[in-house]
Design goal:
eight-stranded parallel beta sheet, 279 residues, alpha/beta, TIM Barrel, 8 strands
Length: 279
């Protein structure tokens, strides 16, 4: 079973979706399951994990409703205000939704590189484990140190790193990012998504070889058992098609054992985002 571990849906709202700039015009429209389905079929992808793009509980409920209506959505990563003193009550409410697997905060947009270690946010992360929720780390390389500190603080929490922490492919910078990745990956509980890479390169002039040194690092650091394919659709359309993203990873792993390829393209996501235990 092939699972796309990371994609988004939205009904475009220019007032809400200010992060979609004029140079991202292709994203200024609705992207719904019926838009994604042909690409999944063409690329033999069986299911997806729908990940929040807007920081609101309305977004979480929107994705859960889509998951209820569309079997292709195997799980949802939503948003809840983890800094809210009453976050425990909100998590208890959301625990009723079977397809809700975990939560994410757009930490990459926070001006404080140590946002993840803020007292209120840490209290929110501490509450996730009671309900068996996962947490997606969305960060830039400069925030890797904070991610390491957060992971060390919670030895029982499941974490996954989105987009391999967005290495600066366009600038061909690697050393500081690689050092941080190796430290984070040293914790065996942390997984990593092979997603969002082509949009970190030159959107109009990238080549698969641009990513090899970055993929080499994440494979060395995490190993095939903790890596997941993700399309980052529709954001990936800024730089290429769904097939371009899938082929990039498929080509890189083509010489690896079938068991490793199966893990990266489905089994790891299935295990990480599997059905939550009942509490």
């Amino acid at each position: 079973m092939i699972i796309d571990s990371h994609q988004h849906f939205w009904r475009y709202n220019p007032a809400r979706d200010g992060w979609i700039t004029d140079e991202m015009a292709v994203l200024k429209r609705d992207y719904m399951p019926e838009d994604l389905a042909p690409a999944l079929k063409a690329n033999q992808v069986d299911a997806t994990i729908a990940v929040q793009a807007d920081q609101s509980e309305e977004e979480t409920l929107f994705l859960l409703e889509l998951a209820r209506e569309h079997s292709l959505i195997a799980g949802v990563v939503g948003w809840v205000d983890l800094r809210d003193p009453g976050v425990g009550r909100r998590l208890e409410y959301f625990s009723q939704f079977e397809r809700l697997r975990g939560f994410r905060h757009v930490a990459q947009a926070e001006p404080d590189d140590w946002f993840l270690m803020g007292d209120a946010f840490v209290r929110g992360i501490a509450a996730l484990r009671q309900f068996d929720f996962t947490y997606d780390l969305l960060i830039y390389p400069r925030q890797l140190a904070a991610a390491v500190a957060l992971v060390e603080r919670f030895p029982d929490q499941k974490f996954v790193l989105d987009h391999a922490a967005k290495p600066m492919v366009r600038m061909k910078e690697i050393d500081a990012w690689a050092a941080g990745i190796r430290v984070l990956a040293a914790d065996p509980r942390v997984c990593c998504k092979l997603s969002g890479l082509i949009t970190e390169a030159n959107w109009n002039h990238w080549h698969p070889t641009d990513f090899r040194m970055y993929l080499d690092i994440v494979f060395e650091a995490f190993g095939a058992g903790r890596l997941m394919f993700g399309s980052d659709w529709p954001v990936c359309l800024l730089a290429g098609s769904y097939r371009d993203v899938k082929d990039l990873i498929a080509s890189y792993v083509s010489g690896r054992p079938l068991s490793e390829r199966d893990a990266i393209f489905g089994e790891n996501a299935r295990c990480f985002y599997g059905t939550r235990s009942k509490r």
